[in-house]
Records
---
Amino acid sequence: MKIKTIVFIILVTVLSCKNDKEESNVELSIENNEPTTKLSPNRPNLNISILLDLSDRIDPVKYPNPAMEFYERDLGYIHSVVESFEWHLRNKRSIKIKDHIQLFIEPEPADGALNSKIQSLNMSFTKDNAKKEYIMQTSGVYDSIVKQIYQSAIEDNNYVGSDVWGFFKNNVQDFCVEEDFRNILVVLTDGYLYHKDVKIKEKNLTSYLRPQDIREFKLNKANWKERMETENFGFIPMQDDLKNIEVLVLGINPDKKNDYEQDVIFKYWKDWLTQMNVKQFEIKLANLPANMDKVIKDYIFQE
């Protein structure tokens, strides 16, 4: 009887240690580019959404850039976002993993095969499927499919604009916000908004903004800020209360012909996101991905 009791105690101890080890799988080794910030194993659940602006801003013929094409910059930014998501998962206790990443294009492409590829980027991880090998495939899958998406858009050469405004109006609350998650929407855009089927104007508030609109609104002079504030220029705000989502805008690329273009674009976006009660936001220029990598990761790694 005594021997049986001792064996039982040993078995319980071994199993308990095994379970503790599995549940506290805090730090999987990261061989390269380890984040500078120590990641807490009790990080919140992440729900990351990526919205692509596939307007003619990505056209390497219309807007060539000898340093690096703008669509290639987008690819670099997305890689940094997804790699951050991987690191987040790999530094989290296995039992606590409940995280999600997805990608959107608005409007949806007419190509059914392309839509199927986009759907494959809708990836959820839980303690049941968050194996190291599966996690480490995430950035590779995104790199491959997102590159195909951009190449398809460029080869098609039929740019009708991107309905970023409509996505905020109709889809952000439903598609990008989940309870008990840290919700982050990453928007890849040059800062201008336009879609051929969505051109709404309410006095000086609009659903769109192009370089020609900034000139027409006479916001290309030194008094641009006073004019915007006194005459209420800006994007038409939504009624939704987006207090449960953060927005990271990447790729702002102002027309160089106007010295005040960057300031005007930033104010349009800041006012708009503030009016929609977005929880937190940052807006960044289209710098080289190597320079933006730390900026993106620092944003996603904050708690």
---
Amino acid sequence: MVFHLPATKCLTKGETVQCAPQDDPITDPFHALQNHFHLNPATKDAHLFAWSHPIRGIRPLSKYKVMRKIAKAAKSHIGFPNLKGHSLCIGGTLFYLLKEIPFDVIKTMGRWSGESFTLYLRHHALVLAPFLQSKPETLNSLKQYILPPVQ
């Protein structure tokens, strides 16, 4: 699936992005988009991620609203941390690293230009610990990203 984003955080002129189908409907972007269109029917000229507000009708989805919904969902699970935007990026990165996708491929998928993301991984040992405990053999493949370089 290929689509054009009119503007991004780093590119005000926007960019064309693509995503590939996944076997699992939970992680398949096309399935998620079709579900979104089913739940939030809008006209063709509406914002791609428009949603149905119960009083105000179709509204464009904002980062604020997304993060508010995620925080509400996390709060409903006892002991679940309050997730922020970077935590979601770390979780997505970890998901693909544990599937043994090479980091350079993940960087391309996430459209990162530098190595700064490895700092987030290093600072979030609590996020990594449960995954490493359940699959300790992955520690060797992740060491180069989560451990600081030895000088």
---
Amino acid sequence: MVPTLPAGISRRRLLAGSAALGALLGLPACGSDETSAPRPPDPSWRFIDARGVKVQLPRRPERVVAYTGVAAVLWDYGIRPVGIFGPQRREDGSPDSTVGDIDLTSVGSAGEGYDNLDFEALAALRPDLVVTGMTSRDVMWVIGADAIERVTRIAPLAALEGYGVPAEQIVAGYERFARLLGAETATPELMNARVRLNQASTAARAAVAAKPNLRVLVTYADSEGISIARPSQFPDLLSFRALGLDLVEPEGGEQYYETLSWEQAGRYPADLILHDTRAFSLQPDQLTAYPTWAALPAVQAGQVGRWSAEARLSAQGFAAVLEDLAATVTAARDDVVGSP
């Protein structure tokens, strides 16, 4: 026997009521195509880092702990890490050159220096994400291979590209990452920073073009000797070279430097020296005690400028680097040693 509907209720009204009840109970509607129904946005946060490691979190990380140099760039984009690790202060208490504009009084520390990561302090900062930079294809700042597992027990780890490509590529990568962390990158301040960077690049190119014979050596030094930076490995130096600057490329040594004893300090004569400003490098006023440094042609000519192997590669950070380069090159003579 075919059932009949109660009087006054049409089949259309019954179907409509069933659909409403199904919606109330969270059930799919009869005959609906679930594949075509709009899906809610996925709130998870994903990032593939410079190692090719996929980092995924249920939401965008808010409590970030970062290597000092990385944190300095993120700071320029308005991201405020809750903590940092790596170089922070010099012996006299002043900030290391890698700190940038970070307010050291407002962030926690998970260890100072390049080999002093404090795991307990890191855990106490309750990070959602730990971020560092790559120093080569397989090596990260501060976090060695034997520390990766301990770090990832505390929080996911992301490593950012840092070496072997021009600075402009690193700047763009940092900006994308900052945007993923919630940075607003279309602010007037950041738009002005990009204009400043373009202007600084133009000024640096013009300064270099005006000194076609300028030969430049890039160094850091300690009590054991002087190390000559290999420009093909450093983002800022690759960009300097693209501007036309003649940078000495050492013939020997390891990936980033050729280290010479003080007796060999004069192997690569140059008109201008750009010397590392980081805390672990002896500074020019300290180097006066080393006769072979004092005998270098560039030192005798008073042509020693500033350089950091960890340039702050935000738009405003690299703009400042290029502005300093333009001023240093403009003030330098390019006939101190003559043609090599």
